[in-house]
Amino acid sequence: MTRAAQRLLAIQNALTDISVSDDQKVDNFILPDGAVMTAKADSVSPTNFIHIDGLIVCEYHLLNRTAQLVISAVSTQFETTASHLPSFQVIEILSSSQVSSPQTSGNDITVKDMWATVYALFTLYHNQETIPVILEELRSYLLLSGLGRTAHAPTASKEEIYLYRATFWQGAGTQGYHNRGWLPPSSFSVVHFSFIPSFTRTPTVISGHPLRPPKPEPGETLFRRFCPSIGETLEFTYFDLRSGSNTSEHLDFFHRWHNSERVNKGWGERGSLEKHRAYITEIMNDPGVLPVIMSWNGNPMGYAEITYLKVGILGFLENRLRWYARKIMWRPTFLVVLETGTGASTSLSERINSVVLCEPVCGIVL
Questions:
Q1: Whole-angstrom Cα distance, residue 287 to residue 201?
Q2: Which residues sit opposite 1 in a β-bridge?
Q3: Which candidate, 145, 153, 134, places its Cα nearest to that of 172?
Q4: How many CB atoms lie within 10 A of CB 26?
Q5: Contact 186, 221 (CB under 8 A)
Q6: Residue 194's Cα: distance from chain center in Å?
Q7: Tens digit of pLDDT for each residue in 4-19?
Q8: What is the pLDDT of residues 334-345, one digit of tens each?
Q9: Which pLDDT tens digit goes with each residue over 309-337?
Q10: What is the DSSP letter of 250?
């Protein structure tokens, strides 16, 4: 066997040899709207339940068959023999109205509970890019929202819906469907903003770009997500300066952080409270920058500035980095974790997720 074939075989084995341990579970998982979810993936028991706030919202079974999503090999001789693609065990989902248990709500599964069920499955089966499921209720929700798709091959069974991890983390099935998503209902994130051409001319930037939505209200929560790895909820809040008052909680934290030696070495913004008030005021008046306070369980721990590449402070690089500046939907983010021991790597990954959710056509977060 050639070395190339050995590498392909190793990749195939890594993709197909995926199992869920008996103790893999979602325990006291806090959903964005505050509801508490519990689920367990048991490879021995044929029946598993997903609980939300103590009630069973659905039951799911691991069926004795597998399915694989074939796309590029369709209409070739490899359409039915694509052994390099992973096959995953099919899961049957039953709503609580189909389950005989005193813990059930007795109602058909709601859209927000179906989204939570998808969340639980991708948390339990975290190595799978797709999850084949069969169900009777809310098939149209999964397909029309982009959370799932049927088999691509014309001759393949359409019974299975393949849940897609990538579209789930892009926010599919949230905005416009229910209020349980990571972006809380607000004037800033009711629906995705339309693509309309606009233009910016400043002393440092002359550039065309898409029109940006109005800025959030001060103190408005932009993103909320529970991180099971540390058991805490991460939030991003638009900076609240409280104009007209002497100070605010956000300004107090910002002032203390930037007067620490560690932060000053990187940002160079040490100074008085008035200097920092003027700095934040300028940032909040800049249409190309969003100042954000990050917190764990409501306790502020960091500060970030989310910018629009062709509008913000990197716009002057356009002539030098033409390939870079053409990516008009890239979102540079300047982030500093200011309280030690607060899950820096986790907050960075969540920050990237929140930027992509707020700007779904964003290609890259810098």
A1: 12
A2: none
A3: 145
A4: 19
A5: yes
A6: 20
A7: 556 556 655 554 444 4
A8: 555 556 554 444
A9: 655 555 444 444 443 334 444 444 555 55
A10: H
